[in-house]
Request: fold
Amino acid sequence: MSVSTRQRFLEDYRTIRSAEGRGSQDSSYYRALPYEDLSGKNSSQWAIRGKSYRYFGRRILSEIERETDRALDVLDLGAGNCWLSYRLSQRKHQPVALDIFADPMDGLKAARHYGCSFPVLEAEFDHLPFRAATFDLAIFNASIHYSTDYRRTLLELRRCLRPAGHVVIIDSPVYRLREHGEKMRAERHDYFEKRYGFRSDAVPSLEYFDEDTIAQLAKELNIKWNIHRPWYGLNWWWRPWKACLLGRRPPSNFWILDGVFA
Ligand SMILES: C[S@@+](CC[C@H](N)C(=O)[O-])C[C@H]1O[C@@H](n2cnc3c(N)ncnc32)[C@H](O)[C@@H]1O
Reply:
């Protein structure tokens, strides 16, 4: 990504996130994430994040912990305000938080709120500043859909993972069909244009997965995916039926993809 493209992306991203009321001056806000949004400004989104993280901790991380039986070297990709790295440190692992956004409220500089230290790195996930085979586990939490090419992003990550290392993708939208994802993408850019006066498309991010793409990545990159479908509650379960009754495009799912490169 060129410097000017990155700058344009970050300007748009900062404008949108600050209008959404992301972040706080209060450290207790950050330390309560993802289970509680003490600002009350994005509570429904954090409720999903909390459920996904709880599921990940109980069903995926604990299994990897059993396999490895030592503190894990974990790469938190697109770490945002670093809440995930904080939670991983609490579990005695060794996270590294990486992002291109250093903002003190919503980016890497928010790491000061956690009262524990872990490395934070301003870098892109397509150019990872690490030697080969550095990490046991890499997590993209609500971030890989900013990639412009999943193949390139995952290949760069594969270089940095140890043999049998895991890549886990959480809270990125998954559609059954590509056309549904494309419709969501167009709606989102139209909404940004109306609300903020720009389309937020400086970077041609992919913005979603569809089932064919997941299968294709498995084949091309030799990844074995274990696909988890957490339960987000009745309202969530009911969304596709409601969309169908109202004649709208189907909503996304938040599956958790746990991948191991063969
Ligand atoms: C929606 S936020 C998610 C933040 C955090 N993981 C969470 O769960 O709250 C997406 C993050 O991905 C970061 N990001 C987008 N493109 C990136 C890239 N190419 N390399 C590294 N980080 C990127 C953004 O700056 C942003 O902080």
About this structure: The domain at 3-261 is CATH 3.40.50.150 (Rossmann fold).
